[in-house]
Amino acid sequence: MAKTKPSHKLLNNPKAQGISVNIIIIAAIALIILVVLVAVFTGRFGLFSTGVREATTCNEACAALGMEKGSSADGDKLPGFKDQSGDECYCKAKNG
Q1: For the chain, what is the domain count?
Q2: Residues 32 and 65 occupy one common structural domain
Q3: Alpha helices, DSSP H only, in the chain?
Q4: pLDDT digits (tens, 9 = 90+) for 31-67
């Protein structure tokens, strides 16, 4: 009887290799998203908080977010920020 070479189906099957590459790509994207979210929510991502930290009035804080000053009736509270007089700030979307 003639001996046959063992076939390596996994090495020659592109679908089997494609699954692992897809999983690696998805895991890398998920890791990048996770790092960005952690940076944003811990305040280490300066782009999102620089303008608000430098603001001293509600108008400046809302403008740094691309909004305008509102009231408690028509705006959203800006958490963690109070103006110089200690009042809470409310911002609303710009009209027009």
Answers
A1: 2
A2: no
A3: 9-12, 14-41, 46-54, 58-64
A4: 999 998 887 777 666 555 555 556 677 778 888 888 8
